[in-house]
Amino acid sequence: MGMLEIRNLSLSLNGHEILSELNLDLWEGYVHAVVGPNGAGKSTLAFTIMGLEGYRGFSGEIVFDGRSLHELSIDERARLGITLGWQEPARYEGLTVGKFVQVGSKEHNPEVTAELLAKVGLPPGRYMQRAVDKTLSGGERKKVELASLVAMKPRLVMLDEPDSGIDIESLRRIREAIGLLKEQGATVLLITHSLEVLSWAEHAFLLCCGRVVDKGNVDKIAGYFRDKCVPCDHRNRPELNGALANG
Amino acid sequence: MDNAELIGLAKIHAAVKDPDVAHLVIGLNKVITSNTVPGLEVEVVEKSDEVRIGVYLKPEVRVAKPVHMCFGLVQEAGIQKINLDLNIERDSAVDIIAHCVFPNATDVQHLMDAQINIAANARYTYFERHIHSPAGGITVVPKAVVELGSGARFKTDFELIQGRVGVIDIDYTTTCRDHSVMEMVAKVSGRGDDVIKIRETGHLIGEYARGALLSRVAVRDRARADVYNRLTASAAHARGHVDCKEIILDDGVASATPIVEVNHPKAHVTHEAALGSVDTKQLETLMSRGLSEDEASDLIVAGLLT
C-alpha cells in the first residue's frame, strides 16, 4: 500500500490514448522517478495526478491517502499536500519572487523565503523584489519554483523534467533542494528522461506507451532504459513495433 | 468630512508640512493649500466652474523632491474642471505625483485638460494616483497634449489604487522630437458596470526619438475596456513599442486597437497585444500551491496592475 495508488489509469487526449491501464504505487517519503522516452506519457501522468485542465477525464482510480482524487480540483488536491513543478515554469508580470515563493507557504515569513532562495542559489537581496517574468532566465524561474515548492512543505511533489534548461551548477542546487524536500518528509516523483536525474531516485518506474512496463531498483531501470529503451521494443504495444521502427 | 481631509486620504500630510516640498491641493475648484520651491512658479486662477493652473519650471532647475498635487472632491456630486498649462524649461527636471481623490462620489465629473511643454533635455514624470468611491459614481476625463523638445524625457503613469473606476476616458497625445523619450503607462482594473477608455497616441517625429505605450487592464463582472494605442514614427532611428494586456473575467468585455505607422525606412515600431482570460498555466501553478481559482486570479491581476 502506498500513499498514492493508481489503478488501471487510462486517459485519451484528442482521440489518442496517452495513459493505458497504468498501475503505480508511491511509497511515502521516497524519491521515486518515472523514466521513459518522449511521448511515453510521463508528464501526462503528473498532470493527471495534479488534476490540470484537460487531464481530468480519466478512467481508473487515483487514490491519495485512501481518498479518491477523481472529483477534487487542483487546489483541493494541493491542500491535501500534492503539488507540481513544471518543466517550463509560468511567468508572471508584476508578481515578485518573494511573493510567489510565499504563495503556498503557511508561514509567510520573509526571512524563511530569503533563506530558501539562498539555498537554491538565488541571492535574496537580488531576487526577492524581482518579478517572476521574462527578465528571469528559464533556469532562474526553475529555482524560484523549487523554492516555492519547498516553502509549501508538500506531502507529494512531482517535478517534471527538473533538469531541463539548466546548467551543471544549477543541477547541483536542484538536487540539494530535492534533498530538502525529502528531509521535510515529502514524497518526490521525478519525471525525467535523464539518467542523471534518474540516479537521484531511490525507486523507479519505466513508462512506455502510457504503461508502467517495469519498476524497482534504479540501476536496473536505468540499465534497461539506457540499453533497450531506445529503440524501444514496446513490449506492451507489439502492434506499434513496425510503425516506430519505420520512423 | 471637509476638503482638508483630502490631504489625509491622499496620505500627503508629511509632504504638505515640509517647506522643501512643493504642493497644491484643490478641493472642487478652490485652492486649499499650496507651497512652492525655488525655481518652480505656480499660478492658480479660481473660477466658478473651473480652476486654471499655470506651472513654470525655470531652466536648469532640478526639483529635488516630488511635487504633490491633490485634486479632489469630498462631496457626492459636483464637477471639477482643471485646466493645466505646464512648462518645463530646458535642462530642468521635476516629478509630479497627482492624487485624485473622490471617496464619496455618486455623481462626480473630474475633467482635466493639460497642455504640457517639456523643453530640450528636460525631464518630467507625472504619476497619477486615483482614489474613487466604492460605488464608482464618477466620470474621469483626463486629456493631455504633450510636446517634447530635443533630448527631453517624459513618463506618465496612471493607476486607480482604491475604489471603482466608474467611467474613465484617458486621452493623451505626445509628440517627441529628436533624442527624446516618452513612456505612457495606464493600469486600470474595472468591475461592476465600469467603463474604461484609454486613448494614447505618440508621434516620434525626431531622429532617435523613442516611445512606449503600455496598457494593463483587467475587467470583471460587466465592466468594459477599450484601449486605443497609436504610435507613429517618421524619422530615422526612431524606435517605439506598443504593449497592451487585458485580462477578462466574468462577463467583462475588452478590446484593443494598436495602430503603428512608420513613415521612414530607418524607423522601427513594434506592438503586442494579449486579451483574454487569465493564462491557464499561471492559474494552475498558483492553484497547485493551494490558492482557489479566485484567489489565484486576483493575484495574477494584482501583479499585472502593479
What is this structure, in a nutshell?
The complex is a heterodimer of chains A (247) and B (306). Chain A is of the alpha/beta class and 247 residues long.
Give the secondary structure arrangement, pairings included.
The complex is a heterodimer of chains A (247) and B (306).
Chain A: E1 4-13, E2 16-26, E3 31-35, H1 42-50, E4 59-64, E5 67-68, H2 74-80, E6 82-85, H3 97-102, H4 110-119, H5 124-127, H6 138-152, E7 156-160, H7 168-183, E8 187-192, H8 195-199, E9 203-208, E10 211-216, H9 218-227, H10 241-245
Parallel strand pairs in A: 3-8, 3-9, 6-7, 7-8
Antiparallel strand pairs in A: 1-2, 1-4, 4-5, 9-10
Chain B: H1 5-10, H2 13-17, E1 23-27, E2 30-35, E3 40-46, E4 51-57, E5 67-72, E6 77-88, E7 93-102, E8 107-118, E9 123-132, E10 138-148, E11 153-162, E12 167-176, E13 181-190, E14 195-204, E15 210-219, E16 224-233, E17 239-248, E18 253-262, E19 268-276, H3 280-287, H4 293-305
Parallel strand pairs in B: 1-5, 4-6, 5-7, 6-8, 7-9, 8-10, 9-11, 10-12, 11-13, 12-14, 13-15, 14-16, 15-17, 16-18, 17-19
Antiparallel strand pairs in B: 1-2, 3-4
The amount of helix of chain A comes to 25-40%
Note the total helix count of chain A: 10
Instruction: Write down the secondary-structure element order of chain A.
Output: EEEHEEHEHHHHEHEHEEHH
**Which structural class should the secondary elements of chain A be placed in?**
alpha/beta
Rounded Rg of chain B: 20 Å
Span between termini of chain B: 30 Å
